[in-house]
Amino acid sequence: MPNAQVKTALRKKTIRAVFLLHRWLGITLGLMMCVWCLSGFVMLWKAWPQPDETRVNLAHERIHIDTATILPPLVKSSRLFRILMVGSIPVLQVASETGSSKSFDLRTGQDLFLSPQALAGVAADYADLPRDSARFEGLRDHDQWILNTRNHRSGFYRYALNDPKKTLVYLSPATSDVVQATTRVTRFWSWVGAIPHWLYPSLLKRHQSFWVDTLIILSGAGIFLTIMGLWMGWQRLGAGRRLSPYRGIHRLHHIAGLCFGLMLLSWITTGFLSMNPAGLFEPGPAPGWIDRLNRPVMSSELQTVVSTLRAHPEARFRSVTLGTWGDTAFLSVVDNEGRYRTLDQTLSPVSLTAETLRPGLARAGIATTIAVLDQDDSYYFSTRHLKRTFPAMRVTGADGVRLYLDMRNGAQLRVVEAGAKETRWFIYGPHDLDFFGWLRTPLARLLIILPLLLGVSAICLAGFCLGVARLRITTTRGLRRRRDRSRASS
User: Fold this and answer.
1) Exposed, middle or buried: residue 67 (CB in 10 Å: 0-12, 13-18, 19+)?
2) Radius of gyration (Cα) for the chain, nearest Å?
3) Are the C-beta atoms of 157 and 171 separated by less than 8 Å?
4) Quick check: 457 and 38 in contact, CB under 8 A?
5) Fewer CB within 10 Å: C terminus or N terminus of the chain?
6) By the 8 A CB rule, do 296 and 79 touch?
7) What is the tens place of the pLDDT at every residue in 393-423?
8) pLDDT at 262
9) How many helices (H) and strands (E) does the chain have?
């Protein structure tokens, strides 16, 4: 056989093999691809449940400090001190410089274990319900609604509230704060949106390595399926007298693939990369200068604060946190309306500014640039799933790492190192289409992202229907052959 004929025959066999592989891989993976697309529609407007910040702050009673307050024996310095009420108990929480936390009863100065019964009132107060409306449902560490909540492995108390919304509230035994809250409505939208999109049922997600491997395999197969489809689509473009040689739903699958196939490939590829296959986008450690940004808080400063609170019983605070901003001690308080305020140790208003931060940075030998943000920047911005707080301070080190600080209470909001910058532009930017502020607006979501998602969904739905139809034909043929063989043998 001449070489030309051999090449032609080989090419035909290759094309047929690709078509068959695409067909059967589509039959196998088609339903998952459709689920990813359809759940994406929900996620355009319905985010993962998050507790309301103001309600979290109002869940604690106003602080009552009297002359019987007893401070526990403390080490010389800590990362921060926090005073709040848990029911009728004044509590001191101490966060050490190593990150561990302990609670003390300020009536006795003894260690305090925050029991589920003591925190039930906090759960009810979160929803502004009577204290007896919270039913304790156990300590949960792998509950469906806390799987992406920080420190969930240490366990949170879960309470079911007796209200029409069927609210579930989760509290941290370490801090007594509400860390998650869901309602019947938010749970419903999560079950048809985020959970199928992220493949997030707790029975799978609790096995972290298996969950990651499952998503990597499925999305990797999806990439292969999409690339084959694009190649086949271009091969069949213009075959015959029409743009597409197919009819009906097969024609829809072909044309939609030509128009939106690259968008599908982008989404499935970035979803694959978001699982960090082979550690490709492993986040790096936070640089040492972040730990040196603020000096420790002295125990003697806590004694001054307690004395000041005793002298001002009219102060209506729900939480008082003693921390540092650079080398300056300050109080971050939650007032009676649930708002953050910053005060000095005499309870006078004070601002957390770049000027008060710079001397501490200079003394610690930290070379940085500082900017105050009143709106989004490239790495710190609000999305439909996460609301950022402003004003925020951006501290950029000489190594290019960005640290974002909450100017309402001094808390660290986000650290953006080299790995986070890469994932921002190569993974989450293309996946969420949020490169610019205007792309994150509801109008852009409606006019740009929704049509793209409709086109991608048309590819997957049409392909899935074709796969089901082909599977039905193949099954019917197989049954017919078996019947014919059975009749022939009889």
Assistant:
1) exposed
2) 29
3) yes
4) yes
5) C
6) yes
7) 999 998 899 999 999 999 999 999 988 999 9
8) 96
9) 15, 17
